[in-house]
Amino acid sequence: MIPCANPQAQYLSYRREIDEAVLRVLRSGAYILGHEVEAFEEEFAAWLGTPHALGVASGTDALHLALRALGVGPGDEVITTAFTAVGTVAAIELAGATPVFADIDPVSCTLDPEAAAAAVTSRTRALIPVHLYGAAADLDPLLALASRHGLRVVEDCAQAHGARYKGRRVGTFGDFGCFSCYPTKNLGALGDAGILVARDAALADKARRLRQYGWDNGRLSISKGVNSRLDAVQAAVLRVKLPHLDADNSARARLAGTYRAGLDGVGVSLPFERVGDAHVFHLYTVRSGRRDALRDFLAAHGVETRAHYETPLHKQAAYVGVTGASSLPETERASRESLSLPMYPELRDEEAAAVIEAVRAFAADG
């Protein structure tokens, strides 16, 4: 079976470096925050092109802490998409705020600026655009919307390490950029980890205090915080992988080109790529009106796939009553049609060719 994602393959690619880094931490005696985390924060900020980065326990925590640092809480509404991982909305609720769903653009599958504008009320405090599958959301109209209404913008970059919008890396446009380093991500740890970035020093400092019980330098809680510390082992692993990230993203782009050439005209819609942007292909997600049949056919031919997102959040029991959940037609259509094919830097050319052959065989069967 050709796996849809294969985080172990990346570990094996950098095994010697990772093993040495982990051993370095084990020998150091410093396992939480400390030098490794500080070094990773500095290196990631430099790579991204932003002045401040903060290592946290997960991507969900990054979103939660961003909202808290911005003063978003009970009584406030945050507009986002239901076509995302549950962590996006869980973070809003962890901050005590109320999520509001707006529909997605039918082509990009990211937050539709017009739908978001229609969802704004007097209680709206923030927008969370999700950069999906490795492609940037259309930020300019969303940032303009935020400016008109005095809203904060928190970018969910969990699937988009290195993606660019109009030449600039995502995560550097909003008040905060939030990244997950779950093992399958473009920059993946060997466990849970996340990164929070900001341009404003005061906001970054506030998030840094919130990350660890609201402590000041004397370990006195000057505000009510949480425990969301990045451990040194994960930071060391991420420090190994970060210098390889651009090359790994290039490998993903090359594989995407192989898929594009091989699947053109076979009855599936290929991933959207906005002119002038850089897609980093966290996922290679196609769309088909016969998605379930295609998934079953590929499984029978040794190709693992995933449906991102087969059950959008507004159709899951925990979020059925969320504002906006009653009218998301494009979200529901995408959930019926989307299928992610195998995509990771270590995918071999012959494996990609086998995936293409299987999809083409399905199309030929009618």
What this model shows, in words?
This protein has 366 residues and is an alpha/beta fold. It has 13 helices and eleven strands. It starts with 6 loop residues before the first helix and ends with a helix. The strands form three sheets. It has a seven-stranded mixed β-sheet with strand order 1-9-8-5-4-2-3, with helices on both faces. A two-stranded antiparallel sheet has the order 6-7. Strand 4, helix 7 and strand 5 form a beta-alpha-beta unit. Helix content is 41%, strand content 13%. Helix 2 packs antiparallel against helix 9, helix 3 packs parallel to helix 9 (232-241) and helix 10 (245-263) packs parallel to helix 13 (349-365). The radius of gyration is 20 Å and the shape is globular.
